[in-house]
Amino acid sequence: MSTVELAGADARSTTAQTSTDQSGPGRLGRGRGRSGRPSTVRSFFTPGTIIAAVILGVTIIWALVPGLFTGHDPVDGGDTAALLGPSAEHWFGTDQIGRDVYSRVVHGASRSLLAALIAVGVGLVVGSAIGLIAGSRGGWVGEVLMRIVDVLLSIPALLLSLTIVIVLGFGIVNVAIAVGITAIAQFARLSRSQAVTIMQADYVQAAYGSGGTYWSVLLRHVVPNAVSSVLALAVLQVGSAILQISTLGFLGYGAPAPTPEWGLIIAEGRNFVATAWWLTVLPGLIVMAVVVSTHRLGTALRKAAE
Amino acid sequence: MSPTLRYVASRLGQAVLVLFLAYTLAALLLMILPGDGVLARFANPALGLSADQVEAIRDSYGADAPWYIQYWQSFTGFLRGDFGFSVNSGAAVATLIAAALPSTAVLALCGFVAAVLLALIVTVLASYGKPAWLATAIDSAPSLFVSVPVFWLGIVIIQVLSFQLGWVNVVDPGPVEALILPTLTLAIPLSAPLAQVLIRAVAEVRAQSFVHVTRAKGASEGWLLVNAVIRNATLPALTIAGLLFGELVAGAVVTETVFGRNGLGSLTAQAVANRDNPVLLAIVVIATVGFVIVNLVVDLLYPLIDPRLRHRGRVGKAARRQLKGATS
């Protein structure tokens, strides 16, 4: 879901790279001039990216030390009244059994962020491995690997992740793995196109010439040169992963009931939509803010990586 | 064989191969790996199947045969349109899907048309809107809406349009009224990526010299929009058709769950909740066939729409490249 900014950027970078394919071997596609650095650094710190970084930073601290931000128990509401509106005491109000909604969102951050990291990790590791090998090896190995990627892409993402969830069983980690598998294809595509460009560079020829083996070239030249754009994609993917994981959580395949998980919090608040708007609207806004922020940062990083 | 024919044949062959492999992957995950565990559930007394019926179902799956025979039987069954039986209800999956399909098809069609209209309106306002701050504000809306959780959007739409403003009745709506809010929920996130691509394409086309020349010759902005800009901007929009199909599938699952509508989406959600592997397998395969066909059609349409892609027998190569990038 919502990987579109990225899709457009991919389309552009793929065409850019293939056009350098045709410009003959031994030419490095993109001029990565040193002189361009200071201006990219300056253009990276726009007000938008700073706000995005602050939002993400706060969310990460929520995840690490939730107790710092809220004194309320996320699972046990005690004898607090149910369905209180937002107030100074309960910023996001209380839910149907008197739990503080803000506290549930804060405590849910660790679960949602960790799941997103697992998902992106699976996509990154498996996808880059496929892509780097396919791009540097070429030949039938590359063909077979990229056909596998085509197959992963041919199944609509949500259905692919549901298939994995039904096989692995419910639970937040399984949901994260399922979402990660849908991200493999994008990492494979990007790292393959990176590897193809890098393999044509002079220094790779030189490394082979001075006795380098395939694996030493892959590890010492291809991986380090591909890493910046792959990591930029990873940041971008964190947002999509949070969105997909919360969707699966909302559908009820993630964490079981009392656990504070963002998708589940919204799902539980759904029954009180007519009387208690804060149960769904406020947690949803938080999810949205986090996703927008990672998209923003990911896009800025991608530009800086180019 | 002419280059065009060869291109069509090779794309067709690729599509068939990918479909076959996708079926194999789905069958491996949902049928072969779980093995007898799925079939054993047909014996559940709650299903109310007689021993003969259970035996007939087990026989149709080739339950006692080795896995490759089961795989082959299921594969040929799918080719015939026989998708097996639901573990949850014992009903034929084909019947369940046939019953759910019309409602989802109507919703998907309405959602898609609304999304295209919405994207066009947003594009025109963002590209030509006055005052400038309004255009900028609308320009940034799509990137916000690709980050909205669809399920949350549905709930908020119910809250605002139905409970706060009372415009649409969700408690006991008529058939058309019941379609309004789900269509909106489906269309807004769907239109966002489309609008993003269109806005970028319009900006690129407007910066090209032929547009300046035509304007200098006296063409009005409106004439340019219709005759030069929209025509050239449809191409990038087409590249994300595959992506939109995927969003439509995901959107249907979530929207039908939020609004409690019956259809393929809620059938999917129930199948996962009940661990109904045969139903999910059929839905995955059908959706994948749709997805692959959409991408194939787009691929074949490319050279027809853009004459630049027809040159020197390299039909569709650039198109395929672009498309692959866009759907990844």
What is the structure about, briefly put?
The complex is a heterodimer of chains A (306) and B (328). With 306 residues, chain A is mainly alpha-helical. Chain A has helices at residues 4-22, 37-44, 47-64, 101-137, 139-154, 157-168, 172-199, 202-209, 214-251, 262-269, 278-305.
Give a structural overview.
- The complex is a heterodimer of chains A (306) and B (328).
- Chain A is an all-alpha fold and 306 residues long.
- Chain A contains 11 helices and no strands.
- In chain A, α3 crosses α11.
- In chain A, 52% of the residues are buried.
- Chain B has 328 residues and is mainly α.
- Chain B has 14 helices and no strands.
- The longest helix of chain B has 36 residues.
- The C terminus of chain B is likely disordered.
- The interface between A and B is large, with 59 and 68 residues.
Question: Could you say which structural class the secondary elements and strand pairing of chain A correspond to?
Answer: mainly alpha
Shape of chain B: flat
Oligomer: heterodimer
What is the mean pLDDT of chain B? 84
Give the CA-based shape of chain A.
elongated
Distinct helical segment count of chain B = 14
Largest interface in this structure: A-B, 59 and 68 residues
What's the alpha carbon Rg of chain A, rounded to whole Å?
22 Å
| Span of the ends, CA to CA of chain B | 31 Å
For the biggest sheet of chain A, the summary is: none
Number of helices of chain A: 11
Helix content of chain B: over 70%
Unreliable parts of chain B: 312-316, 322-328
Q: Strand-residue fraction of chain B?
A: under 5%
Q: Return residue spans of chain A where pLDDT drops below 50 for at least 5 consecutive residues.
A: 1-37
How is the biggest beta sheet of chain B arranged? Answer: none
Task: Write down the secondary-structure element order of chain B.
Answer: HHHHHHHHHHHHHH
SSE string of chain A, helices as H and strands as E: HHHHHHHHHHH
What structural category arises from helix and sheet content of chain B?
A: mainly alpha
